[in-house]
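Priority: medium. Attachment 1 of 2:
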């Protein structure tokens, strides 16, 4: 059957609505799909770009001071230290790059001239090879992470020879004295250098002197984790229960313990403030 021009136009008009309806329907269905894709979480949603951390150049070795460290002892002098008793110049012994406890009468403990709040500390120490004594009377000293004032015990990380030397475990090397038993005994032999790497978070206080947040400490002893973000109960007391006493920032103190054994030595002491 032959179909003229009018016939062809009539046929197209009948087909056109059929073609338009599916296209419009697809657009209606696709719109919610596009909206869902737009609301879908993207990796960029959780990317944080600022503030950019400061560039710090690490030391040549794991124990060397990084570029932003405050050098407390580099083997040359005691310029960063004073007597803990009266703030006079420190009088320990500096020889061959090493700082050694002085047992001369009236010398006693030393502490940093500067005060610190939150920080990272590296310190190396050595018990003499010919050490004598036993228990707490064998290479006893301490790193006081916050020396809060005359007459206060402060917060002590215990130094002691615990290589085949038995003592109470909350007073052994690596302990937070009388509070935290170390997770391991990583002590080297007497005569070998040992190291502490410490992260100290100072306590904070309310205006009335009450505790706001406690202090925390993490300690690596010779590279071994021995205190894992331990929450202190207050100052580390020789006798009695610990308590908190308000302070803002404090020096770091090294102890000249009167145990009558051979004196300890220290070297390579540096600190990074974490304020």
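Attachment 2 of 2:
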């Amino acid at each position: 059957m032959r179909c003229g021009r009018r016939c062809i136009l009539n046929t197209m008009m009948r087909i056109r609505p059929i073609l338009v309806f599916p296209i419009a329907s697809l657009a209606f269905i696709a719109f919610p799909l596009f909206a869902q894709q737009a609301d879908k979480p993207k990796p960029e949603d959780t990317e944080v770009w600022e503030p950019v951390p400061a560039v710090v150049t690490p030391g040549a070795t794991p124990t060397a001071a990084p570029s932003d460290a405050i050098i407390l002892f580099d083997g040359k002098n005691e310029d960063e230290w004073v007597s803990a008793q009266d703030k006079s110049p420190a009088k320990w012994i500096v020889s061959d790059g090493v700082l050694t406890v002085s047992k001369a009468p009236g010398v006693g403990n030393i502490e940093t001239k500067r005060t610190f709040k939150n920080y990272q500390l590296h310190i190396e120490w050595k018990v003499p090879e010919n050490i004598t004594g036993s228990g707490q009377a064998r290479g006893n000293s301490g790193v006081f992470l916050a020396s809060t004032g005359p007459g206060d015990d402060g917060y002590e990380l215990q130094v002691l020879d615990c290589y085949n030397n038995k003592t109470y475990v909350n007073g052994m090397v690596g302990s937070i004295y009388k509070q935290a038993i170390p997770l391991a005994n990583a002590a080297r032999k007497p005569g070998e250098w040992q190291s502490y790497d410490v992260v100290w978070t100072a306590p904070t206080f309310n205006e009335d002197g009450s505790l706001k947040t406690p202090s925390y400490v993490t300690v690596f002893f010779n590279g071994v984790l021995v205190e894992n973000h331990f929450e202190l109960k207050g100052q580390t007391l020789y006798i009695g229960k610990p308590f908190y006493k308000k302070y803002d920032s404090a020096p770091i103190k090294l102890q000249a313990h009167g145990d009558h054994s051979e004196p300890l030595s220290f070297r390579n002491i540096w600190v990074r403030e974490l304020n």
